[in-house]
Prior knowledge:
Number of strands: 13
Strand content: 15-25%
Shape: globular
Helix content: 40-55%
CATH class of the largest domain: Alpha Beta
Oligomer: single chain
Bound molecules: pyridoxal-5'-phosphate
Distance between the termini: 50 Å
Amino acid sequence: MPKIDHAPARRIKDFVRAVRTSGLYPQNPVVNSATTEPVVWVGGRDHLLFCSNNLLGLSNHPGVREAAAKALDRYGLGSGGSRQMAANIDVHRALEERIAEFLGQEDAICFAAGYMANVGSVPALMKLDRYLEIDQVKSVAPMEPGCGPGWEIFSEELNHASLVDGVRLARAEVSRFPHRDMAALAGLLEASEAPSKFIVSDGVFSMDGDIAPVPELAALAREHDAMLMIDDAHGVGMLGQGGRGSLEHLGVGTEEVDLQMGTFTKAFGGIGGYVAGDAELVDFLRISARTYIFSAPLPPSIAAGVAESIDIAEREPWRREKALENAAFFRREANALGYDTLGSAFHIVPVLIGGEAEAAEATRRLRHRGIVAPHARFPAVPLGRARIRFVMTCQHDREQIGYLLKCLAELRQAD
Ligand SMILES: Cc1ncc(COP(=O)(O)O)c(C=O)c1O
């Protein structure tokens, strides 16, 4: 029987057909091998992959696989419920303690994804006054999102979508400040009459690859009695002498930032997210973050594998050093070819193309030359600022990067 042809569904289908015809529909290749390796198998031949987040090569590390396999044997596939019901498993707690120790924070709470960490934590924190209104002790039920009176969030304009969505869900008053513009933020804080202020910013920005001025953010937070949360999904594991992220890289103490958010999906080669900070702040999230309470946690095998990844990342600094050296080499050579790599400074190296159609075409041409590197486009980046977002890992070698540069040079000549 044919499906009923509802008008709303028809409009959506027509739209998708039009996008497909325009050539703008993202044609992500189906990869028939682990996407955590620099060489992947696509459409019956090898391709070079320059967009994997397996930055330190830990996803496939034998020690990590062994730890995950042992946990899979012991605990099985899933977690069996949410942390507040059946699934408060020892490996989850061990991972929280391990990441907190690694970062030098009192405690951490883990979520099934970094996205869930942000989208759950930001609105949760804003609910404090609503708890207090109804008596914090008698009811610590995970209320509907929506903040109590008096909160204003100050959100960096290039924050990751998960932070943006968390901010939206908080239903607080929101002031967006321009990228890295501390004078503008200071002005907004000055003008604010909100009794509770909350500043949220990425550490390393996911689409531009540059870093937030965390010392200045911390100073403004202190001056205006505001809480500060840094999403360091791209910084932790990669930056700083011990790999502790943007804070360590910029010489900011953990005591200067209230909450440090991060993901296990990138440097640590797994999946999952966390928020780390003082024990009471983290415990508050345990009773209020809906993505923690109403969703199952990481599979135990992943939690065990990630804990091993953190150990290896800590023991083997050469991994982040090599990824960053690769990126520095690639950025220098891409700039020499005339490409704008924006303000990127670390392992994420965007190459600005501009138009959406031009970026889609560049991606297709690279793919034709055996390179997988999709372009980032609206709404991930502003319209007219589409870019190919290359990510350099410790597993790429100079020959592979040289080949990519050769293809980029050809792309430029063809323009
Ligand atoms: C800055 C930032 N925060 C959060 C996330 C979400 O992390 P996850 O992929 O673990 O959901 C990402 C993912 O790309 C990110 O770049």
